[in-house]
């Protein structure tokens, strides 16, 4: 369920403070600590799943819940004309935190 060394599990358990924007019984969404756009959220499952590689059939409902939630999260941030979603997977996919997460970016670059 939970990985004691995982930063995102600690965020879920409120051991690390974060700017939470949404939560329900399955997922949590919060602001990325190093935003690469005016809006940069991370949407994560409460369940510790390391990456897309570890997704199984039993996670079907969870992953569809996450994807279906994205437009609402974007609208709640004032993003009505579009947004970008990114899932980095594994070492060569640029994944730094080994807890499945969907980046939601929009509102223009801040770089
Ligand atoms: P990845 O490269 O794994 O796809 O993305 C990990 C993201 O998590 C990065 O964009 C990074 O800025 C963000 N991040 C890392 N540590 C923390 C943290 O402690 N709090 C928050 N809010 N974001 C974090
Ligand atoms: Zn975790």
Automatic annotation (TrEMBL):
Record Gene3D superfamilies: HIT-like
Superkingdom classification of source: Bacteria
Sequence motif: Histidine triad motif, positions: 99-103
GO MF annotations in UniProt: catalytic activity
SUPFAM superfamilies, A to Z: HIT-like
Catalytic site positions: 101
Ranges of residues in domain HIT: 7-111
Coiled coil: none
Name of the featured protein: Protein HitA
